[in-house]
Amino acid sequence: MKIACLGWGSLIWKPENLPVAWDWKADGPHLPIEFTRISDGGELATVISLNATPVPILWAWLDTDRLDVACEALRRREGITEERCDGIGSLLIHNAPGGMLNDWARERDIDALIWTDLPPRSEDTEGRVPSITEAILYLDGLSGETREHARDYMQRVPAQIDTTYRRAIMHALGWD
């Protein structure tokens, strides 16, 4: 089984123990990604956000042919607890109905896809998308190492993840 991982954030530059076989490819499918998850590290992380404009994401082949091993490696890399089975998304291409993601994978001879599937999160609510204003105020309120980490994250996310929030935040905070 040929398995690929989709990525759009720190997984690209810091895969850690995820068994990435080769470099990340920039010709991924277009998904609605936005900087709408306040993460445990303080940064405003990128996640699938259904109201966002789709952007081209990245993908990489994984050096395993077992979907369970790939999902477990991604779960561990992302620090998602075993109890939270909804934090990793996967799709077996031959069993999936037609659709953009399935068609994209079939064109590349991919048998299965995995991705991080954590929801947006505001300061106080899992699943709630912070507004652009709330996101800017949150990041502007950070200080010291946490603020530097948040700025570094936003600047390191690949440029093709060109989102509405990213442009507004970078401009408002002078991070461009």
Automatic annotation (TrEMBL):
It comes from the Bacteria. This is Uncharacterized protein.
